[in-house]
Specification:
single chain, alpha+beta, Pnp Oxidase, Chain A, 3 helices
Length: 171
């Protein structure tokens, strides 16, 4: 991540007495390696919407894409505030990370071309995208809008010995 490191705070009331705040670099490792993220958005009527999707951590932000008519894209048009979650589906081991921020459209073609390459490098040829008119395009004529989420606040949940909850605050 470029810029200063976020402030890390151990949430003592939710942590083992032996726990210490986890470094942001550990969360970045989880975000980089994760294959699936859960995106939480808010519908125009205020109800929550959660969906799994693939994504990338690069340049200090999480990136994901979605078709322009999908529920999450329509939600983002009304309210760009999101939560992205990833980690393990276990209770006694692993490290879960939750990122809060604003989903900002990525339309710069140079940046999109770089992201398309990273997408394919991470997820394989089934996730090959061309860049056209400020979005990803696939061979079938589909369009996917790309969003970047720079963390405003993040949480890390260490599971096992010791259990811990770290909060990172960003400038």
């Amino acid at each position: 991540m470029s810029g200063p490191e976020p402030v890390a705070e151990l949430q003592q009331e939710y942590s083992d007495k032996r726990a210490t705040a986890r470094p942001w670099s550990e969360a970045v490792g989880v975000l980089t390696r994760a294959g699936v993220f859960w995106l939480s958005t808010v519908r125009p009527d205020g109800r929550p919407h959660v969906t799994p999707l693939i994504g990338l951590w690069t340049d200090g932000a999480l990136h994901f894409c979605t078709g322009p008519t999908e529920r999450k894209a329509r939600n983002l048009a009304e309210n760009p505030e999101v939560v992205l979650t990833t980690g393990t589906n276990t209770l006694s081991r692993g490290f879960d990370v939750v990122v809060e921020g604003r989903a900002v459209p990525v339309t710069d073609e140079t940046r999109l071309t770089r992201l398309a390459k990273l997408w394919e490098d991470k997820y394989g040829a089934d996730w090959h995208f061309e860049v056209h008119a400020g979005a990803f395009a696939n061979g079938a004529g589909g369009r996917a809008e790309v969003f970047g989420v720079t963390p405003r606040k993040a949480f890390g949940f260490g599971k096992g010995e010791p259990y811990s909850q770290t909060r990172w605050l960003f400038g």
